[in-house]
Write a structure and sequence with these properties.
It is found in: Cell membrane. It is elongated, with a radius of gyration of 38 Å. Strands 6, 7, 8, 9 and 10 form a 5-stranded antiparallel beta sheet that branches. Among the domains are: about 120-240, no CATH class; about 455-695, no CATH class. Helices cover about 40% and strands about 25% of the residues. The longest helix has about 55 residues, at about 1-55. The chain is α+β, with helices and mostly antiparallel strands.
Length: about 750
């Protein structure tokens, strides 16, 4: 009877247990799928970030693309071509002959739009013609009577009926009247430069003597007319037979080229022209084909008929600034003509067989090399926006489109030393922007990667000893009551915004360290000594004295010692500074020791970033040490080992995987830190380990420059490359940490 009564209850209980088991199984499956899906989504997100970074970065390593657009037969085929070019939209091409005739053609239809010929004084002929630097699009005609006419090619843009209309025309910068520069007769082999209030003409007279004519204008305040002051001087030691003549756009140098030598003259002062340097540029039996100036007019490019192209620019040395051979390009076909871009360091060379090669000097990249159907090639020039090439060949003007977005970036430019114009030697340089149009971006990632490692190194140097030591004491020696207060207090430090830490470091800590540098050094020496001395003294005290202070408050004994040492160090700092460093420690470090001292330096960054990293390392390491099974430490103590022996030989070994993971997590945190480095350093991209100098990190550089970079530019994509490098750094450290942690766990899991 009793069993009959209990049977329904047993069945209900079994049903309840079955339902609970089903719910538990459902929850287990849901948790399993949820965790799997969450982990997969995180992995997919990382892959998407990885591939998106590669998608943005890839174009900077692509080469150039050039293809023919149109070919136009021009008039006056018998006249020698002086200059070719185009307007900014590449809609109108022009050809200037050595006699001054300018023909404009439509690139769309190939029809002649207009033709202009400057009016010459009666009875004169053109004896010399010269073109200016490419971006000015001017030319000058030297006449048989010693006069000269300067002509500019211009394009007027209008919008009749809301339609853009480009009208080609000529302008005369110094007026349409001929200007006399040689009283003794005709002008030969002329070169010129015009910059508003200054004109310079270098030429040969009928006797082969070289002269420099400099005219400087000043506006008359009363008449508002420009009054010109003329200076003329003979150029001594100049060769009579020359291959080419160049003048830099700033009127400072005249360069005469013979078959094997360059004569460089200082023409900054027209009354004191002097020979700066005679440069031997002979290359065996090869002949100089063309000499030209690279954009910015700091480099001389010399092409030889053998296919070698040499770059020279001035370098500071014992004898002053002299031209030196910097680099050579010898993987091109024999050169027929050469053209340089308006603003970048790219240049194109064309062989007599129609092989076109596009190169970039600084990155030493061969961007394009292909043969075109160009017979009897002559002059070649880039369009104003460098998105097209105009090539004279077989009595035709050939227009080729050029897509060359990122020529300045290469593996060597990013990670190797590069010899930039104006620098005494090859260097790692990051300098992405400037106020000058002809500025060359310097995009080496080495200083940024080095700065990232430097900041992380000094932060870890400060944080690891404090965090690990604190974790060991808190987890192993501290009483539970005190641990429950100390551990959350340190962990809550991680909630402090890093921008506040950076703000305090930059505006308060950095000036404090600078003003009390001797005291800081004394503090670093005395603090560990005083703590160890106090601990040793406490260990030697009688037990009866020790028991008077509760175990919970024993740590508080160090507070008066730390406060006193800090007060003493800062108090004695001025005394030491006056006695040893003549009252100025910074000046002593800079002048006497030759060490650069920046107020916001690696020492400041190490302390500030250390405070940000300490909670991360401390929390993970403390949990690892505290989680070591008690039976291991108790067994060691039972076998007669001391607390210290148990700690070093049992507890720390067992917890070593967790401690190592804590250190690597802290390192990853330091590598990616942005705001502290941004506010507490000078953000100077340098390669110096000195603790008294700053740095620029990858993360800080991205934060500063990304908002200012043009979307799609080389600068923009290199910043994404910097983010990719940072991503790889973090992935590398985390992977190494996981591998080492697993090996440590396998090694000490048997303890």
């Amino acid at each position: 009877m009793e069993s009959q009564v209990n049977q329904p209850g047993s069945a209900g209980k079994s049903l309840l247990v079955s339902r609970q088991a089903s719910r538990r199984a459902f929850k287990d499956k849901a948790a399993e799928y949820g965790i799997t899906i969450g982990g997969t989504m995180v992995f997919v997100a990382l892959l998407l970030i990885f591939f998106y970074l590669l998608y943005v970065i890839k174009p900077i390593f692509d080469g150039a693309h050039i293809e023919p657009v149109t070919s136009i037969s021009y008039q006056n085929a018998d006249a020698k071509t002086l200059m070719v070019g185009a307007d900014e939209q590449n809609e109108i091409l022009y050809r200037v002959t050595a006699l001054g005739t300018v023909d404009f053609y439509s690139s769309a239809t190939g029809q002649l739009i207009s033709s202009f010929t400057p009016k010459l004084p009666e009875g004169t002929t053109v004896t010399s013609s010269a073109k200016s630097s490419p971006n000015e699009q001017r030319f000058a005609l030297g006449l048989s009577n010693g006069q000269v006419i300067v002509v500019g090619v211009d394009f007027a843009v209008s919008y009749p009926d809301n339609q853009r209309l480009i009208t080609p025309k000529l302008n005369y910068p110094i007026g349409d009247e001929a200007l006399t520069i040689n009283q003794d007769g005709a002008v030969y082999n002329m070169v010129f430069d015009y910059s508003g209030s200054r004109m310079s003409f270098a030429y040969q007279d009928a006797n082969g003597a070289w002269k420099l004519n400099r005219q400087e204008g000043e506006e008359n305040m009363m008449t508002e007319e420009v009054e010109w002051t003329v200076s003329e001087v003979f150029i001594e030691e100049a060769p009579k037979e020359v291959v080419s003549v160049l003048m830099t756009p700033d009127h400072r140098q005249l360069i005469l080229s013979t078959t094997h030598r360059l004569f460089v003259y200082n023409t900054r002062d027209a009354d004191a022209v002097e020979l700066l340097q005679v440069l031997d540029v002979k290359k065996g039996n090869a002949k100089i084909k063309q000499v030209d100036l690279l954009a910015g007019a700091s480099s001389i490019m010399i092409s030889y008929d053998s296919g070698v192209i040499s770059q020279y620019f001035q370098v500071n040395g014992e004898k002053g600034r002299l031209y030196e051979l910097i680099r050579e390009f010898d993987d091109v076909a024999p050169v027929s003509s050469m053209a340089t871009e308006f603003y970048r360091k790219s240049f194109a060379v064309l062989s007599s067989e129609g092989e076109l090669t596009l190169l970039y000097t600084t990155s030493q990249r061969n961007l394009f090399d292909e043969k075109f159907d160009l017979k009897k090639p002559g002059l070649m020039a880039f369009s104003p926006r460098s998105n097209a090439l105009i090539i004279e060949a077989d009595n035709k003007l050939n227009l080729l489109s050029v897509q060359n977005d990122h020529p300045e970036v290469s593996w060597s430019a990013l990670w190797q030393k590069v010899w930039y114009e104006g620098y005494p030697e090859p260097k790692y340089v990051w300098q992405s922007t400037s106020g000058s149009d002809d500025f060359e971006a310097k995009l080496s990632l080495m200083p940024l990667a080095f700065g990232t490692m430097k900041a992380a190194f000094y932060a870890m140097l400060f944080a690891v000893p404090l965090a690990i030591s604190g974790a060991i004491y808190t987890a192993y020696f501290m009483t539970p009551k005190v641990r429950n207060v100390v551990k959350p207090t340190i962990e809550i430090m991680e909630a402090l915004p890093t921008v506040i830490l950076g703000f305090l470091a930059g505006l308060w800590l950095a000036p404090l360290i600078e003003d009390h540098l001797p005291g800081i050094v004394v503090l670093l020496m005395l603090l560990p000594i005083s703590i160890l001395t106090t601990a040793f003294a406490w260990s030697k005290m009688p037990e009866t004295w020790k028991h008077r202070l509760p175990e919970t408050y024993q740590e508080l004994m160090l507070l008066p010692v730390i406060i006193f040492v800090g007060w003493f160090s800062f108090t004695i700092s001025p005394v030491i500074e006056v006695a040893l460093f003549d009252g100025n420690t910074r000046q002593f470090i800079t002048n006497d020791l030759g060490i650069t001292f920046d107020q916001r330096n690696a020492f400041v960054v190490g302390i500030a970033m250390g405070f940000a990293v300490i909670p991360t390392i401390f929390s993970i390491a403390e949990d690892a040490i505290f989680s070591v099974p008690r039976h291991l430490s108790n067994g060691s103590l039972a076998l007669g080992a001391t607390n210290w022996q148990t700690l070093t030989r049992v507890v720390l070994l067992t917890a070593s995987p967790g401690i190592f993971s804590a250190i690597m997590m802290g390192l990853g945190r330091a590598v990616g830190e942005t705001m502290i480095v941004l506010m507490a350093t000078g953000n100077t991209a340098i390669l110096e380990w000195s603790v008294f100098e700053g740095m620029r990190t990858l993360a800080a550089n991205i934060a500063v420059e990304m908002p200012e970079s043009a979307i799609g530019s080389s600068h923009y994509r290199v910043l994404f490359l910097a983010a990719f490098v940072l991503f790889v750094f973090t992935f590398f450290f985390n992977t190494i940490a996981e591998v080492v942690r697993q090996r440590l766990r396998e090694r000490y899991s048997s303890l």
